[in-house]
Design a protein that fits this description.
The complex is a heterodimer of chains A (200) and B (202). Chain A has a domain at 4-125: Jelly Rolls. Chain A is 48% helix and 23% strand. Chain A has helices spanning 4-17, 23-33, 90-93, 116-122, 126-151, 156-166, 170-173, 176-183, 187-196, and strands at 37-41, 46-48, 56-62, 64-71, 74-82, 86-87, 101-105, 109-115. Chain A is elongated, with a radius of gyration of 18 Å. With 202 residues, chain B is α+β, with helices and mostly antiparallel strands. Chain B is 46% helix and 17% strand. In chain B, 29% of the residues are buried. Chain B is built from nine helices and seven strands; from the N terminus they run ααβββββαββαααααα. In chain B, strands 1-7-2-5 form a four-stranded antiparallel beta sheet. The longest helix of chain B is centred in the C-terminal third of the chain and has 24 residues, at 128-151. Chain B folds into two domains: 3-139, Sandwich (Jelly Rolls), CATH 2.60.120; 151-202. Classes of the chains: A alpha+beta (200), B alpha+beta (202). The A-B interface holds A 19, 69, 71, 76, 78, 90, 94-95, 97, 100, 130, 137-138, 140-142, 144-145, 147-149, 151-155, 158, 161-162, 165, 181-186 and B 67, 69-72, 76-78, 90, 94-96, 130, 134-135, 137-138, 140-141, 144-145, 147-149, 151-154, 180-181, 184-186, 189.
Chain lengths: 200, 202
């Protein structure tokens, strides 16, 4: 259980993604917001690992997280989760399969979480649970679409601008080396893009 | 069973989640699919330019999914959709908003409509439809994630090689201009890469 202020923060987050159709849905979401637990964590804290790990829905109260995907011998940063956003492994939470990705905090952060069992099976009216699941799928699909927009830009400067338009505080939360990797650019190209777009 | 129903059934049976337990649910879906819509190469699919939440099944041909790229003068390719795929207006279906994408036929095409109202009705009667829906979206996610890795490759020819080996069905059909947009490089960049490697697309 959490204090009123904190649960209000979660409720605000839930209401930002969940269109209310009936009054009982608001009450359900309020109950749900009280079930989140909070943790203050250091940079590098792992929210979920590859494989069948934590099946939580996370809410980033403060700070930022990065989701990484391993391929061949490397690991690439594929998505960001920022303050006031929900984060989750769609593999585990939605599709109930081992996660192909892992997610860690990129800065000192406060993270709220709730297990899938409570989220979808026990607490909620089944209509609200099903609607929330569908919203999480939509969120995930939309995020992948937005990230694809960024990566489809053929110049480094456009990629950087597209990424900043999606995540305005991007340059403050991620080291340049990882940013270059995220954008698929060499470090030299990233610095040129930063300079030409007036960020260095 | 007509050929439209057979084609849609084959699609559902190809999903990883499919087992014979889904047969009755799939029967309900294929029982309500509409007549084929035919379009010639180069036409815009007007059915999806409006606020439309239906599911569409591309029975044959290829579709270009386009979007307005704020960093380019021209609209850009978001995806090339191969036959035997479901395509939807994501903005309308997911966010109840006006479509930001539109579809242009890349060849002559034939597609079939599965109405959203039928989806909702069958979903209420047969909740297993939700699992088919989930399995369908999971496949789309998997493709998007894999493509994102390709789009982060620094070398253009590595990206080309990825399309060649992972999506040979698309590679065989794409002209260079479409290939350049699909892998997120300029046309000039793609031509330079082919010239450097003394290679040809085919």
């Amino acid at each position: 259980m959490v204090s009123t202020n904190k649960s209000e923060l979660i409720l605000k987050g839930l209401l930002s993604i969940y269109p209310i159709g009936h009054d009982f849905e608001r009450k359900e979401l309020y109950t749900l917001s009280n079930e989140f637990t909070f943790q203050k964590v250091e940079r590098g804290f792992q929210l979920w690992a590859e494989g069948l790990d934590q099946d939580n829905l996370y809410f980033i109260v403060s700070g930022a997280c990065g989701e990484y995907l391993r391929h061949e011998r490397e690991e690439s940063l594929i998505r960001f989760y920022q303050q006031d956003k929900f984060a989750f492994s769609e593999d585990i939470l939605i599709y109930s399969v081992p996660s192909e990705t892992r997610c860690i905090t990129l800065t000192e952060s406060i993270i709220a979480s709730i297990p899938k069992k409570i989220l979808l099976d026990e607490t909620l009216h089944k209509i609200v649970g099903a609607k929330l699941l569908s919203i999480l799928i939509n969120l995930s699909m939309t995020e992948y679409r937005n990230t694809t927009y960024e990566m489809l830009q053929s110049s480094g400067t456009s990629r950087l601008k597209a990424a900043i338009s999606q995540s305005p505080n991007l340059l403050n939360i991620i080291p340049r080396k990882e940013l270059a990797d995220y954008l698929g650019l060499s470090r030299a190209s990233l610095f040129r893009a930063l300079k030409s777009s007036g960020h260095e | 069973m007509n050929s439209n129903q057979e084609a849609m059934r084959a699609y559902f049976e190809s999903l990883p989640v499919y087992t014979p337990a889904f047969k009755a649910t799939v029967d309900s879906v294929v029982g309500v699919v509409g007549e084929s819509v035919f379009k010639k190469k180069g036409q815009v699919v007007e059915e999806l330019t409006l606020h439309n939440k239906d599911f569409w099944f591309l029975k044959s041909g290829y579709l270009k999914e386009m979007y307005k790229n704020p960093f380019e003068k021209e609209d850009s390719l978001f995806n090339l959709i191969p036959p035997q795929s479901i395509f939807v207006n994501e903005d309308a279906l997911f966010n109840d908003s006006h479509p930001q994408h539109y579809f242009i036929t890349y060849s002559d095409v034939e597609f079939i409509r599965f109405k959203f109202e039928d989806f909702e009705r069958i979903n209420n009667e047969r909740p297993m439809l939700q699992l088919l829906y989930l399995s369908g979206t999971a496949e789309i996610q998997k493709n998007r994630r894999a493509r994102l890795l390709m789009l982060r490759m620094r070398n253009t020819l590595d990206r080309v090689q990825w399309v060649k080996s992972v999506r040979p069905d698309l590679y065989k059909r794409m002209d260079r201009s479409t290939l350049a947009q699909y892998i997120g490089v300029s046309r000039a960049g793609l031509y330079r890469a082919f010239e450097k490697s003394n290679g040809f697309q085919f």
